[in-house]
Write a structure and sequence with these properties.
Radius of gyration: 16 Å
Strand content: 35-45%
Shape: globular
Largest sheet: 4 strands, antiparallel
Length: 199
Amino acid sequence: TITPTATPTPPGGNIVMEDNFDSQPTGPVVTGSSPYELTGVGGASSLTVQSIAADSAPNALQISAGSGGGAYGYEQQTGSGLTSQTVQFNLMLGSDFVLPSSDYMVLTQLLTSTTSPSPAGKVSLILTGGGGLHLDYFDSLGAQHYLWSGATLSTGGWHTIAVQDTVGAGTGVLNLYVDGIEVAGASAIDTGTQPMTYF
């Protein structure tokens, strides 16, 4: 379930997009404009709806991870975007999942625009080799910063992950929760000035 909300406290707030994939048939991901569908996907051949393992039966989104490249589902907001939002999802790393120590994987991103040449305001949740997590964000001038956590993700079991982002140049807030526990957070930081429109 991916639930960007209008307030920074999961799971409350106004849900603008939510999908548990239970209403979809197994196979290719169904996309569309419904609040219960992703806007689109990238790397569609590596994404499937399946019922083999699900945090809340019957279905889940399965992503086949390979070397390089990417596969993802995205939600494109219309209108003015959101200045305070939570992206929350349940994640299981397969028991055969191995990420070399020199590699990393982007688990989720929040962006102001997909067409802007500047990365200002972009927030990424990064999984490192060894299962560590950190937030990678860009301020209003496009400078990159990191917010580290001591959390690690084990394989073979479900985790609930939430990234909270409040936009502001000097008033911004970022928080990372794993299984309901805050593992990283910072306030009064520069997280950009533009609302988020793409998750």
